[in-house]
């Protein structure tokens, strides 16, 4: 398989807490804006829980039921613009439990995969209100094998390693990651890219929620660990191109996957 160039656009945006209607409207205007640049994106990605934010005390009432609204809006957009979308994540009501779920759509608007956050973040009370996912996030994007994790998941290198061992060449990470942990965010994302010799693409929200300040710094990091795009702390569309042939080149240069000795650890 020839591995393509993927033009990526990350919708680094503010989220209005507990206001899905406003967030849908805001997201759609940003999606239209993302399609206007001189380089047409192949894939768009949004931040974590963009439909509700962390309005956890009301989350059962405002979560998207079986993701139906998200599926209908995003699928129509994909068809209209011939673009892939990694839609979030969203707060998703699934059989009476709310999960933090990413839905993936192809250029025809077909739902191709979903992934629900496995590691719930106690510092933001997720474990009190949300149910966790129970399987890793594999999917295919324009023929490229990809993986997905959500925010706090990046602190668990076992998960990204498993995705890489099972074929992922690029890892997508939506997030709501706040100050004062910018240093952790940047370091962990770069580490996941370097150790797995794969692209890591992250989209973090901006704005404030109560006293919590979200810093953006959405990133596209190549398999050598070089940052090829990074956002600032305000709303913006962060753009960059991933050359997927680089994954094999880096894995050939330092054969980490051949040199593993899992029988010893
Ligand atoms: N929404 C999240 O999972 C936040 C994770 C986070 O901030 C961290 O430090 O980890």
Automatic annotation (TrEMBL):
PANTHER family hit by this protein: DEAMINATED GLUTATHIONE AMIDASE, NITRILASE-RELATED
Name this polypeptide is given: Carbon-nitrogen family hydrolase
Keyword Ligase tagged: no
Family in the record: Belongs to the carbon-nitrogen hydrolase superfamily. NIT1/NIT2 family.
A single GO molecular function term of this UniProt record: hydrolase activity
Domain spans labelled CN hydrolase: 6-246
Highest classification ranks of the organism: Bacteria, Bacillati, Bacillota, Bacilli, Bacillales
Origin: domain of life: Bacteria
One Pfam family of this chain: CN_hydrolase
CDD domains: nitrilase_5
Keywords: Hydrolase
């Amino acid at each position: 398989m020839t591995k393509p160039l993927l033009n990526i656009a990350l919708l680094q945006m503010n989220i209005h807490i507990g206001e899905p209607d406003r967030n849908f409207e805001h997201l759609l205007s940003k999606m239209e804006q993302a399609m206007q640049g001189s380089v047409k994106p192949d894939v768009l990605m949004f931040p974590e829980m963009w439909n509700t934010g962390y309005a956890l005390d009301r989350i059962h009432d405002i979560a998207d039921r079986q993701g139906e609204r998200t599926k209908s809006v995003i699928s129509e957009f994909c068809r209209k613009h011939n673009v892939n979308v990694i839609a979030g994540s969203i707060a998703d009501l699934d059989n009476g439990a709310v999960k933090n779920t990413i839905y993936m759509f192809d250029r025809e608007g077909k739902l191709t995969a979903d992934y629900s956050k496995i590691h719930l973040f106690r510092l933001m009370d997720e474990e009190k209100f949300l149910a966790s996912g129970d399987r890793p996030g594999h999917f295919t994007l324009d023929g490229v094998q990809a993986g997905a994790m959500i925010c706090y998941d990046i602190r668990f290198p076992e998960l990204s390693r498993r995705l890489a061992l099972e074929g992922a060449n690029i890892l997508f990470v939506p997030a709501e990651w706040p100050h004062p942990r910018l240093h952790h965010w940047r370091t962990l994302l770069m580490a996941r890219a370097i150790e797995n010799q794969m692209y890591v693409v992250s989209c973090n929200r901006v704005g404030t929620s109560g006293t919590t300040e979200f810093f953006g710094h959405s990133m596209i990091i190549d398999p050598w660990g070089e940052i090829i795009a990074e956002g600032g702390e305000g709303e913006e569309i962060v753009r960059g191109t991933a050359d997927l042939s680089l994954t094999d080149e880096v894995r050939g240069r330092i054969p980490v996957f051949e040199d593993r000795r899992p029988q010893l650890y």
